[in-house]
């Protein structure tokens, strides 16, 4: 978290100018209200704790872009000749960034040996310790025992 005298910023692209925005999928799966109630009900029944997690810098951690994306950096950032830059990561603002981040998050949770629900694919849980996640792109609604956190 930034201190009062420290500024934080992010570069967000103008996704509405993306020439491919009408030909790519931009939807990102979200947990249904039923899935959220399942996580909440199990947590309440087991007297588990609730917590929310926001994955910091999630879009930049989503892996390589599946398409070639070129941008011109604003003049105030790049004082030299303004040549297009090819992006290798997904920044905020692109139509398909949320979907890419969601897929990368699913892979990361599976790599942590969490099991994905067959009927509610945005619910993940582990064996042994009680820990469940209802995942929406880079936000996790979690329920579990305090010692179940990795």
Explained architecture:
The chain is of the alpha+beta class and 150 residues long. Helix content is 19%, strand content 24%. The chain has a domain at 28-63 and 90-148. The chain contains two helices and seven strands. 23% of the residues are buried. The protein has helices at 33-45, 97-111, and strands at 49-54, 64-71, 85-89, 115-116, 123-125, 131-136, 139-144. The strands form two sheets. Strands 1-7-6-5-4 form a five-stranded antiparallel sheet, with helices on both faces. A two-stranded antiparallel sheet has the order 2-3.
Secondary structure layout:
Blueprint (H helix, E strand, L loop, with lengths): L32 H13 L3 E6 L9 E8 L13 E5 L7 H15 L3 E2 L6 E3 L5 E6 L2 E6 L6
Antiparallel strand pairs: 1-7, 2-3, 4-5, 5-6, 6-7
Protein name: Reverse transcriptase Ty1/copia-type domain-containing protein
Which tags fit this structure?
150 residues; alpha+beta; 2 helices; 19% helix; elongated
In short:
This protein is of the alpha+beta class and 150 residues long. The chain has two helices and seven strands, in the order H-E-E-E-H-E-E-E-E.
